[in-house]
Prior knowledge:
Blueprint: H1 16-22, H2 24-57
Helix pairs in contact: 1-2
Amino acid sequence: MAQEQKQPKKAPETDEKSDAQANPDVTERKEQLDEDIDAILDEIDDVLETNAEDFVKSFIQKGGE
């Protein structure tokens, strides 16, 4: 029995500069979303820095769980 391996199809390469020039609203929205994501990740980091021990303890299994 021969096994066939499928090669994943690669997405065609796009020129990001041409996309940005074609639609500046999309570029502006992407930048805003990137900033929002960075702010959320920073907030998560702050919480983990102050409550890391409690956070980890909540995932520790206790006998039989």
